[in-house]
Amino acid sequence: MEPLRIDVPTPSRHYAITIGNGTLEQLTSTLDAAAAPRRRFVVSSPTVWKLHGERFAAATSAEPILVPDGERYKQLATVARVYDALIRANADRASTLITFGGGVIGDLAGFAAASYLRGIALVHVPTTLLAQVDSAIGGKVGVNHPLGKNLIGAFYQPLAVIVDPSVLGTLVRREFRAGLYEVIKYGMTSSPSLFARIGQSRKKIFAKDPDTLAAIIGESCRIKADVVAADEKEAGLRRILNFGHTAGHALEAVTKYRRFRHGEAVAYGMLVAAELAVARGILADDHRQSLASLIASLGPLPAVADLEVGPIVEAMQHDKKMVAGTLHFVLPTTIGATTIVNDVSTDEIRRALESVGLKKG
Ligand SMILES: NC(=O)c1ccc[n+]([C@@H]2O[C@H](COP(=O)([O-])OP(=O)(O)OC[C@H]3O[C@@H](n4cnc5c(N)ncnc54)[C@H](O)[C@@H]3O)[C@@H](O)[C@H]2O)c1
Ligand SMILES: [Zn+2]
């Protein structure tokens, strides 16, 4: 199959996402076509480089800048290590920084690119499903602070995003599934056909059939690209992509980011939002049921029965997505459409959390 090209026309920059099996082997020509400056540096992690670094070799002659990629390394100290390496290599304004890894590498090295010399060219080559459908697109880069996730960052669009689904062959099943929940999110917010396709192609998806993956990644990227092109800085429409994230972030925070992969927490968050929507009479219960079945069909989620509702509600009230004191909730109205409400009471949230299995209290 020919690679798929999706344009991302944001106000600050127009760029393309190129998706296809074998796009890694064509990196150099894609980078040239995107007018990426010729001094090219790659930032990756030892894990990803060991698995896939040789496929990258032709794109850059410089030694890779390798930094660890666990969530706890997504912090300023790791960004400083990237600056150190760039300075030692005399990276100048005619340089391109290529990120090659999951969302942690993309976010932290993207932030280094946004700030080094007040910004050098950036290209993302994402290697997890989550990064391929979500974090590499839209220009959010940044790191965590000890007091909260993603508190430090910038909007900084890349010159290009290059997605080769074949790298997902080495991704462990749990990470892969975590990315799939974000694909379900796009289906729920924007595309009944994508939603249906995940259910119908589940076997081929888990077998990592290249064309099947390229198709669902492509459809997800198109949705995210359309949303960020219309609302780059998250003033309005882009908030729909927070579907499932209000409760999801709270679950992650309360369990100190140890129990859930981000996508798993979002899966619960989507179920909570669907319960809320049904209770308000704006979503049919059989649609909630379809969502619950699709999520269940991908495999088990970490347990929540031991988590009390109270601390989760509390954590939601501290979310940085709070705008002027009200909690915005993205609620589904059907499969493929949402509405944003800002008058959800804590009682409603409590009931919805209990419905998905959390403990009273
Ligand atoms: N910028 C955004 O808009 C945005 C959106 C969503 C999430 N994020 C961020 O993304 C991060 C999560 O990203 P993630 O889920 O990709 O996690 P991650 O970057 O931690 O990667 C998960 C694991 O997969 C490994 N890995 C990566 N590619 C692999 C491959 N091809 N084969 C085998 N192993 C591989 C990594 O070494 C790591 O251990 C979070 O920090 C989150 O805040 C950012
Ligand atoms: Zn997410």
CATH class of the largest domain: Alpha Beta
- How far apart the termini lie comes to 54 Å
Number of domains: 2
Percentage of residues in DSSP E strands: 15-25%
Low-confidence stretches: none
Can you give the mean pLDDT? 95
The unique ligands bound to this protein are: nicotinamide-adenine-dinucleotide, zinc ion
Largest sheet: 7 strands, mixed
The tally of beta strands, per DSSP, is 11
Topology (elements, then pairings):
Blueprint: E1 4-9, E2 14-19, H1 27-33, E3 39-44, H2 46-52, E4 65-66, H3 76-88, E5 95-101, H4 103-115, E6 121-126, H5 129-135, E7 140-145, E8 148-155, E9 160-163, H6 173-190, H7 192-200, H8 202-206, H9 210-230, H10 245-254, H11 262-279, H12 285-297, H13 309-317, E10 329-334, E11 337-341, H14 346-355
The protein binds nicotinamide-adenine-dinucleotide (NAD) and zinc ion (ZN).
Residues 45, 47-48, 51, 69, 71, 74, 101-105, 107, 127-128, 130-131, 134-135, 138, 140, 150, 167-168, 170-171, 175, 262 line the site of nicotinamide-adenine-dinucleotide (NAD).
